Amino acid sequence: MCNRLKSKRKTLEEEAVRLAGQTGGESSMGEGWKDHLEQVDDALFRIAQHGDMNADAMLVADAAHLAANSDDRSPGQLVNTAMLPGVVGEAWAMADFHYGYGFPIGGVVATDIDGDGVISPGGVGFDINCGVRLCATELTLDQIPDMAALAKRLANRIPAGASGKGGVILSEGELQTVLEEGASASADLGWGFHEDIANIESNGLLEGEDRTLTERAMKRGSKSLGTLGSGNHFLELQVVEKVVDQQAAAAFGLREGQVCAMIHTGSRGLGHQVCSDHVAALESRYRGHGDSWRSDEWDITLPDRQLAAAPFYSKEGQAYFEAMQAAGNFAFANRSALTQRLRQNLEAVLGVADAEVSVVYDVCHNIAKVEQHVIHGSSCNCCVHRKGATRALGGDHPELASRFSGVGQPVLIPGDMGTASWVLAGPKTGSNKAFTSSCHGAGRQLSRSAARKRISSEELQQTLKAQGIHVHARTPNVLAEEAPGAYKDVDEVIRLTSAAGLARPVARMRPLAVIKG
User: Fold this and answer.
1) Active-site annotation holder among 65, 385, 397, 440
2) Rounded CA gap, 399 and 197, in Å?
3) Is residue 120 part of a domain?
C-alpha cells in the first residue's frame, strides 16, 4: 500500500473517531473500542481484538458513515458480543447498525457449537423471525386507477396494530401444526399457496423436535395469525422504480414500472413471549461479578447481562433453540396469511387472480441458525445469530430454487416509507465474508421518543400525500416514530453493503401506499 493511501486512511480513521467521540460520553459497555479502531478499506472498519474479546469486530461503514451514525453504544455492544464463548471468525455489524438489546441491531455473530459455542436470545431479538416478503404482481401503475381507494381498502382489511385483533382464530391443534410445519401448515389452512414455499427462506420451515411453548405464548399466538402488528411493521405497495442488474431482476421476475407489495412483520406476540420467557430464564442464571455477569454453572463471564447465553447443547440452550424455531415457523405462516389477505383484496378491487400475485422471496432477519462455514481454512458447525441482518446465499447454494442459480438469493431491504426500499442479490457463487449475511434495512438514527418530539405525524402525512404516497396508520404516534427522518439514508446503506462485497443492488422500489399498525 502506498504511503499516500496509508496517510489518507489514517486521516479518515482519526476523523471518524473524533466525530464519533462527540456523540456523548464513553459507555461502560465495550469501553475503549475507539482506541482499537482501524480502517480496512473504503467500506469496512475493524475493531481489533483486545481485552476479553475472542475475535475482531467488523463495522460496515466508511469514515463519514461511522462518524454520522455511531453513538458509541452500538460498536461497544458489538465488542461485547465478541466476548461470547466460542465466537469464531469476526463479529459483524452491518451498515444499518444501531443500538439494541444486548446485541446491536445489524449484528451477525457465529459461535462454534462443536466447541464451547453458546446461543443467546439477545442475538435474535424479541421479534423472532421478523422478516420481509416481496410479492410481485402483473400490474403496472397505470392499471391502478385509484391508488388512494386501494390503500384505504387495504388499511380497513389488513389487521394491524398491537392488539392483534382480526387475526385468524386457531384451535390449539391448528396452532401446534403451524409451530411444527410453518408455511406449509398455513397453506393447508387456506392461508397461502404451496407453490410459494420454494421462494421462502428454508422453504418456510425451521425443523425441530420439541415445539412446546408456554401457555401464555400459545394464547398470544392463537388469534394473531395474519396480522401485521405495530411499530416498524408494514404492508407497502411499491413500484419498481429502477433496475440496476437486469440478469438478477429477470431471475427474480422484476421489471421497471411493475407494482409489487412488500410485507414486513414477524412472529407477533407469540415470538415476543418466547423470547421473554427464555431471556428471563437465562438471565436468572447470571449474577453480578464486579463489572461483569457470571454463571458459575457454565463457567461463563459476560460484560452485559443482556447477552445472557447458554452452551448450545445444554438443556437450556436447546430449549431456547427449539422454541425459537417454533416461533420462526409461526412468522413464516403469518407472512403467508398476510399474502393471502393481499391477494383477496387485489382480486376484489382490481380483478387480479391469485396466481398473478407471486412470491419473489421471503427472508428472516431475526434468527439463529446452525450453518457450516469455513473459518481460517477449516469447516465449522456454527450457530449464526442474525439480529437485524439478512441471509445472502450464493447462487450455487443447494437450498435455493433453480431460478436463482448463478444469480444469488434475493435479499430484501426495506428503507423508509418516504424514500425507497431495495432488492439485492447474494453472490453469484460462493459466500461472502460475513457468514453469508447482509443488512436488513436502513437502520434507525433517531430513537422513537426523539422522533415523536421532532416530527409531527399530521404534517408528515400531508407531506407524503403530496408525494403521491398514501399512508394509513392505526396508532397516531407510529407515523412520527417511523418517519423518513428517523432512519438512515437507505441508498447509502446499500452503497456500503455493495462496496463491502456482501450483496449487490438489483432494483430500487418506490413506495405508493403504506399500511402500518
Assistant:
1) 440
2) 12
3) no
